[in-house]
């Protein structure tokens, strides 16, 4: 820098080395190349100024995402001696980071269905399985909403029938959560979210839950234990987890331990060989989530994952 005429330079910034120690204390090596490999960050040429800078920026973004620091990012002020060099400032608009998912997409589809129904041969189980796949990440995209609409159109399913099937889906989820005879706080929050995604009104859902509670108290629970659908599959976790198990927050190490004990294969990064990515926030913009979406890798909400592999969280 002195050769370039820069005698004085001060900057307040972030150190990816220090951040990696906080976010991933278990990493054996923290060289830029090792971090890029760990986070699946593509680098064209190591040890070139442009590519190393770009790689560092990508690693920094992943680390901030992992630490839950997805807030507005502003450029740091710096003092540089007047050598005629231009300074470029990069700002990220907080509003562009917030992804607002709509909860009423399926509700609109139900309301727009005809009230009458012609004779059709739809398969309820097939439709429930479709809902299961769509709600796996607790988000209904426009494309997924169109899948529902297309299915209803193909089989001439009425508004009333569609609502009843959605109620049955909600009932089965309630029954599944009541296998341990308790609805935890996390499960209660999830039930509320799912009811909105299904387009069901609060009164109906409260009634369904009360009926299932009554069935459970009478020893007439209709739910069956399901086999672990992810056994033998590879899984990667991204972002700060929110699950609590026996009073202790589930950290990344504990998550790996639980997944391994249920027959899953742990992956550190996202690649075409990954089977599922588990997220606490379905709207996450982490590097792993973006890459999973680009590779069409299923993204599974954390609470769905724990329940699917038989881990009962608080």
UniProtKB/TrEMBL annotation:
<feature type="domain" description="Exonuclease">
    <location>
        <begin position="12"/>
        <end position="60"/>
    </location>
</feature>
<protein>
    <recommendedName>
        <fullName>BRCT domain-containing protein</fullName>
    </recommendedName>
</protein>
<dbReference type="InterPro" id="IPR013520">
    <property type="entry name" value="Ribonucl_H"/>
</dbReference>
<dbReference type="GO" id="GO:0003676">
    <property type="term" value="F:nucleic acid binding"/>
</dbReference>
<dbReference type="Pfam" id="PF00533">
    <property type="entry name" value="BRCT"/>
</dbReference>
<dbReference type="GO" id="GO:0006259">
    <property type="term" value="P:DNA metabolic process"/>
</dbReference>
<dbReference type="GO" id="GO:0004527">
    <property type="term" value="F:exonuclease activity"/>
</dbReference>
<dbReference type="Pfam" id="PF00929">
    <property type="entry name" value="RNase_T"/>
</dbReference>
<dbReference type="InterPro" id="IPR036397">
    <property type="entry name" value="RNaseH_sf"/>
</dbReference>
<dbReference type="InterPro" id="IPR001357">
    <property type="entry name" value="BRCT_dom"/>
</dbReference>
<feature type="domain" description="BRCT">
    <location>
        <begin position="227"/>
        <end position="309"/>
    </location>
</feature>
<dbReference type="InterPro" id="IPR012337">
    <property type="entry name" value="RNaseH-like_sf"/>
</dbReference>
<dbReference type="InterPro" id="IPR036420">
    <property type="entry name" value="BRCT_dom_sf"/>
</dbReference>
């Amino acid at each position: 820098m002195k050769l370039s005429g820069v005698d004085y330079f001060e900057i307040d910034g972030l150190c990816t080395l220090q951040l990696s120690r906080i976010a991933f204390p278990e990493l054996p090596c923290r060289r830029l190349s090792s971090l890029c490999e760990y986070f699946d960050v593509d680098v064209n040429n190591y040890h070139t100024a442009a590519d190393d800078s770009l790689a560092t920026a990508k690693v920094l973004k992943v680390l901030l995402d992992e630490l839950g620091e997805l807030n507005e990012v502003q450029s740091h002020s710096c003092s540089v001696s007047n050598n005629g060099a231009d300074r470029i400032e990069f700002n990220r608009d907080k509003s562009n980071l917030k992804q607002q998912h709509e909860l009423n997409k399926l509700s609109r589809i139900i309301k727009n269905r005809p009230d009458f129904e012609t004779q059709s041969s739809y398969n309820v189980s097939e439709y429930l399985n479709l809902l299961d796949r769509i709600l796996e990440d607790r988000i209904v995209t426009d494309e997924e909403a169109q899948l529902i609409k297309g299915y209803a159109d193909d089989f001439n399913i009425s508004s009333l029938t569609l609502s009843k099937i959605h109620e049955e889906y909600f009932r089965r989820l309630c029954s599944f959560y009541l296998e341990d005879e308790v609805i935890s706080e996390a499960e209660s929050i999830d039930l509320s979210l799912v009811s909105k995604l299904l387009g069901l009104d609060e009164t109906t859902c409260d009634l369904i839950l009360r009926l299932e509670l009554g069935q459970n108290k009478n020893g007439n629970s209709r739910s069956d234990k399901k086999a672990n659908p992810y056994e033998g599959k590879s899984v990667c976790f991204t972002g700060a987890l929110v699950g609590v198990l026996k009073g202790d927050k589930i950290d990344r190490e504990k998550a790996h331990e639980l997944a391994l004990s249920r027959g899953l294969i742990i992956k550190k990064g996202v690649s075409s060989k990954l089977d599922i990515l588990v997220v606490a926030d379905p709207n996450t913009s982490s590097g792993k989530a973006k890459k999973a979406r680009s590779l069409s890798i299923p993204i599974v909400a954390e609470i769905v994952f724990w329940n699917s592999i038989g881990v009962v969280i608080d």
